[in-house]
Amino acid sequence: DIQMTQSPSSLSASVGDRVTITCRASQDISNYLAWYQQKPGKVPKLLIYAAATLQSGVPSRFSGSGSGTDFTLTISSLQPEDVANYYCQKYNSAPLTFGGGTKVEIK
Amino acid sequence: EVRLVQSGAEVKKPGESLKISCEGSGYIFTSYWIAWVRQMPGKGLEWMGIIYPGDSDTRYSPSFQGQVTISADKSISTAYLQWSSLKASDTAMYYCVTGLGGGYTFFAFEIWGQGTMVTVSS
């Protein structure tokens, strides 16, 4: 099965900073990659699908890129409300594996 | 409005059986895959398995194959996750999820249920 590896596992950045999270698939998954945000105590929320398509209602400071095995989620200007755990997920074929997650905090 | 509404929190003893539910509304239930996701306390998201209610085609994560059963009753637009013998390690929040972009192909999970907390303790 394809493994999904996220890095870093946690990060701390200042408000306004550009933040980048990476996700690597152990095999080619084309662009079948989604990113989710889970704020503390809340249900996860879809941010990006098809590696780079912003889900409706998601702020434009979020963006995704990549194809094949290497993907990136970028927050262009970190805001206090972006404190959350972020997960990537492949969905080209079962199992639809999640990455291990990245915890984003404010410095 | 598209919604997934899950059954309420459960407290069970080790060895007991359990079936939790997830009712879909606002969309054609039989036309989109529904998956179950586990989140153990303080941990990440784990994909457990998925079912296509239209024909009950079901796929499991190797980690959960044989440990749980996923089913659906399309007559009442409800998916289920069940255990025959619970363990303390099954204590977790369980989410049902669906994605409406793919039809019979998999898609990202844009719709999440509110979660069902299952606590297994003697």
Helicity level of chain A, as a percent range?
Answer: under 10%
Shape of chain B: globular
Q: How many β-strand stretches of chain A?
A: 10
How far apart lie the N and C ends of chain A?
A: 37 Å
Mean pLDDT of chain B: 96
- Ends apart, CA distance between termini of chain B: 40 Å
What's the order of the H and E elements of chain B? EEEEEEEEEEE
Largest interface: A-B, 26 and 23 residues
Number of helical elements of chain A: 0
Order of SSEs of chain A = EEEEEEEEEE
Q: Could you say which overall geometry of chain A the principal axes of the C-alpha atoms support?
A: globular
Summarize it:
Chain A has about 110 residues and is an all-beta fold.
Report on the structure:
- The complex is a heterodimer of chains A (107) and B (122).
- Chain A is mainly β and 107 residues long.
- Chain A is built from no helices and 10 strands.
- Chain A has strands spanning 4-7, 10-13, 19-25, 33-38, 45-49, 53-54, 62-67, 70-75, 84-90, 102-106.
- In chain A, the strands form 2 sheets. In chain A, strands 2-10-9-4-5-6 form a 6-stranded mixed sheet, with no helix packed on it.
- Chain A is globular and about 35 Å long.
- In chain A, 36% of the residues are buried.
- With 122 residues, chain B is mostly beta strands.
- Chain B starts with a strand and ends with a strand.
- The A-B interface holds A 1, 32, 34, 36, 38, 43-46, 49-50, 55, 85, 87, 89, 91-101 and B 35, 37, 44-47, 50, 59-62, 95, 99, 101, 106-110, 112-115.
